[in-house]
UniProtKB/TrEMBL annotation:
This is VTT domain-containing protein. It comes from Octopus bimaculoides (California two-spotted octopus). Residues 84-203 form the VTT domain. The lineage of its organism: Eukaryota, Metazoa, Spiralia, Lophotrochozoa, Mollusca. Belongs to the TMEM41 family. It is found in: Membrane. Keywords: Membrane, Signal, Transmembrane, Transmembrane helix. InterPro entries: TM41A/B, VTT_dom. Its main location: membrane. One of its GO terms (cellular component) is membrane.
Length: 249
């Protein structure tokens, strides 16, 4: 077995191979109307670039839908696995390209799969470095997890539903904190559904959005907070009844 000091070299290798795959897909796109496009696709960083990307990819929808789907899935997993910011733009893109239903199902599943890839990368290649870099934050999160072990899944669900939670940090720290991978996967899948739905639904009316702030209004954030509170209630009830049972004994 390789030492962690040697294992970390696998991360840049995997990143390079993944980047080559994304570059290949984006550069060598199928021909449109018998002619190949000269433009290279790139990740959008603002709404103007996103609208331009939607216009370009829409040209492929009728004849090359499988290519669009493969490109989108590859790009989404790439961003999630390597904790690259900007998933909100891909969620909006999903709504614009696939519609609400297919876009929501696709982004929810890809979010869970991509986050699990990040989990596995952290578990196998990055533990010592992550612990060294984020020691205080990991210790604090570990205290909270230990205090909620009786209702661990509900607590993880709350963390994902809570709109201010740093999902990238939860992804890389979960294997270090011995969060079971099935708990991790399903808490991401279910916990980020409201966020994904809001983004995908907004993507269906992309032309009416002027900035990302139009998506996460005060009303939207309050709704997400409300959902997070509801999710943590079962865990609180379980914890309450267990403490009560211990006192009675």
């Amino acid at each position: 077995m390789m030492l962690y000091e040697q294992r970390w070299l696998c991360v840049p290798i995997l990143f390079a191979l993944s980047s080559i795959w994304i570059y290949y897909l984006s550069t060598y796109a199928p021909a449109i109307g018998g002619e190949h496009s000269n433009s290279t696709l790139r990740f959008p960083s603002n709404l103007e670039e996103l609208n331009s990307l939607v216009s370009h990819l829409s040209l492929y929808k009728n004849d090359h839908m499988s290519y669009i789907f493969l490109l989108f899935c590859s790009a989404y997993l790439y961003k999630q696995a390597f904790a690259i910011p900007g998933s909100v733009f891909l969620n909006l893109l999903a709504g614009a390209l696939f519609g609400t239903v297919l876009g929501f199902i696709t982004t929810s599943f890809l979010t869970a799969c991509g986050a699990t890839c990040c989990y596995l990368l952290s578990e196998n290649f990055g533990k010592p470095y992550i612990i060294k870099k984020f020691h205080k934050r990991i210790s604090y999160l570990n205290e909270k997890i230990q205090a909620n072990m009786d209702s661990l899944f509900y607590f993880l669900l709350f963390l994902r539903l809570f709109p201010m939670s740093p999902n990238w940090f939860l992804n890389i720290s979960s294997p270090i904190l011995d969060i079971p991978i099935h708990y991790f996967f399903f808490s991401v899948l279910v916990g980020l559904m409201p966020y994904n739905f809001i983004c995908v639904q907004t993507g269906c009316v992309l032309s009416s959005i002027r900035s990302v702030n139009d998506i996460f209004t005060i009303s939207t954030v309050l709704k997400l907070l409300g959902i997070a509170v509801v999710a943590v209630l079962p865990g609180c009830v379980i914890k309450f009844w267990k403490q009560k049972s211990v006192k009675q004994e």
